[in-house]
């Protein structure tokens, strides 16, 4: 496997063979055959997951591992070239899928080890027929330019001169003549194209291709009639265009099948041709995937290995597809399509986050020449949740900003230059540019502090335009689900890493006078919503985010002796999961540009100056105050864990366990589990958590 990827051995391992060599029939980076797992029909593999999980990097590794050894094509369906036709091309004669087929064929045509260029006479004929419908007002130079690019698909020798150069002029001349009234335009272009194949090649393979369109519905056995109908259907749009596009996809696959037919071809060409589709949720992705799968379900076989990547879980349009985790396909897929469902010919493979060990190695490789604090890799893994993009960018920030930056928060706000020829930008901005839909960044920044639909509506009312109401909030929730962002009870934005980045952006929105107006408005709005005792933990959470600690200390102190101990510990953890960026004064202004006031409180350095409320147990009050700040600091994903604070956390919980003998075992166990987890960069969970999973703290712990 390439050195750039970590945690993806299930795809690229050579011995024993991972999914890629079993799918393609070649060892990665070598022109050596390996056994195919599905020799009759390969599964159409679709890699799924949210943004930043490395789907594009995996497709890049596929191309790098097999380029030059077997025909490979990679397109990004989100690129501008597939979004709209060129300025001079009428929309009726262009579609994202037709453009994608041209680009894919151009890449697949390139020579590989032991074999020359692949020609695409069937696809070439169909694309000329489609393009001809837009030449009515075109000048001869534009026609020649478009024709020559398409005819190059049938060029078996040099890309310059040869077949394309000779016949582009003839086709253009016929089309120009037809356009001036001497003959039917589309018919003239198709006739010239068929002549090009018939006269330019004597081989049986190319002659067969020239008559392939005789079988087009209602063609009556005439290839020219079939191509005219194809062009008409394409220009009609709607279902008729989808029908024509499906035939164009079939033409591409038929040309590839022809290239692998015959004794010599089988001897020269090892491995299946490989087509890679990035961002397949965007056009032309869905149309291309559907066309291939429907033909396979109808018994029209091909031997092309398709690997697509799409955001989300991939369920839309592929409901009957088999689903596997990456680890499950490491040695075999256990995949068999269902004859009754065309989408079952796809295999969805979910890319998982990277492990803590992967993060350690990845940070080490990026920061090879920079001394890294020992807790940094584990802290990076806790913050990112194993998101490969987040790990790489934080490691780049560390390599460029250490030792000046002392926390992950400072690494996120520090400028990072992704390449020497690109400008530097704060790391958190670079991450948000790629982890959230850019057109929704403003709204998500505000709603990141919300816990559910109702609290999101309250924030929208306070901080967003009047046009963004409850319906817009629901639309945004639907978009997040489609993007693959996990839905977690208690958090509007379920992905903890993305939520942390959005909250950081919210905090930095208004820095005039360092008042953080949007930040304060958001948390004050939410604190005011949760006034009832049943929602006290939410109110205390948002008050703590504003730097108000007294009410949280009082609530935890007064309920310690009577509350269920497990619930009390979960409340402590949830309240202390409030975001903290640096100290503020009572008006919200920056108290200091750097520093963490929680450490001093947790270690008891401020006890002497603390006024204890009258009539309360001073020892318990100060202990709860120290414990709250210790958990607040150690649970913060933006700071490196402090061993002294972890020791203090353990001590305070030990002492509390002596005060409640009946629940002492639970408190004592938490003292061990929480401090150990914090130092190891893991969430602070323990035996106090319910057996059926996280409660309504929304997984904040």
Keywords summarizing the entry:
single chain, mainly alpha, 30 helices, 50% helix, 5% strand, elongated, disordered C terminus
SSE topology:
Layout: H1 9-12, H2 19-24, E1 44-49, H3 55-66, E2 72-76, H4 96-108, H5 121-132, H6 140-151, H7 162-182, H8 185-200, H9 204-210, H10 223-236, H11 238-259, H12 263-268, E3 274-278, H13 285-297, E4 305-311, E5 322-325, E6 346-350, H14 356-366, H15 376-384, H16 388-401, H17 408-413, E7 415-416, E8 425-426, H18 427-435, H19 441-447, H20 453-463, H21 470-482, H22 496-508, H23 517-529, H24 536-545, H25 550-559, H26 565-575, H27 597-602, H28 618-634, H29 643-659, H30 664-679
Parallel strand pairs: 1-4, 1-6, 2-3, 3-4, 5-6
Antiparallel strand pairs: 7-8
Helix pairs in contact: 4-11, 5-6, 5-8, 5-10, 5-11, 6-7, 7-8, 8-10, 10-11, 11-13, 14-15, 14-16, 18-22, 19-22, 20-21, 20-23, 23-24, 24-26, 25-28, 28-29, 29-30
Mean pLDDT: 89
Cα-atom radius of gyration: 31 Å
Summarize the main sheet: 6 strands, parallel
- Residues in β-strands, percent: 5-15%
Overall morphology: elongated
Helix content: 40-55%
Poorly predicted sequence stretches spanning 5 or more consecutive residues: 692-701
Give the count of helical stretches.
30
| Neighbour order of strands in the largest sheet | 2-3-4-1-6-5
Tell me the number of strands. 8
Distance between the termini: 35 Å
Structural class: mainly alpha
